[in-house]
Amino acid sequence: MLELLGTVGCHLCDDAERVLKQLSLVRPIAWQYIDIALDDALCLQFGERIPVLRHGEGAALYWPFSALDIERFLVQGITQ
């Protein structure tokens, strides 16, 4: 399961969510949006770097990313 870390009012987070929604039209992917403002630890860790796409505990893809970047991320599972 992918996690899109962002917060309300972040236009870049909205853009990242749009990319995920477009990709999910052609490839089945499971993802959830997590508002970092509701979690102090996430806010400290990612507050200035959102949006961030996470897969598992270690792999993260930082904005800007495209649908192709997400595909590579899912295949390689690497941290950028």
Write down the overall mean pLDDT. 92
Could you spell the SSE succession in H and E letters? Answer: EHEHEEH
Question: If strands are numbered along the chain, what order do they take across the biggest sheet?
Answer: 2-1-3-4
The largest β sheet comes out as: 4 strands, mixed
InterPro entries: Glutaredoxin-like, Thioredoxin-like_sf
Protein name: Glutaredoxin family protein
Organism: Paraperlucidibaca wandonensis
Write the layout of secondary structure elements.
Blueprint lengths: L1 E5 L4 H16 L4 E5 L4 H7 L5 E4 L3 E4 L4 H10 L4
Write a structural description.
- By secondary structure, this protein is an alpha+beta fold.
- It has one domain: 3-Layer(aba) Sandwich (Glutaredoxin), CATH 3.40.30.10.
- The protein has 3 helices and 4 strands.
- A 4-stranded mixed beta sheet has the order 2-1-3-4, with helices on one face.
- β1, α1 (11-26) and β2 (31-35) form a beta-alpha-beta unit.
- The longest helix is centred in the N-terminal third of the chain and has 16 residues, at 11-26.
- The protein starts with a strand and ends with a helix.
- The model has no long low-confidence stretch (mean pLDDT 92).
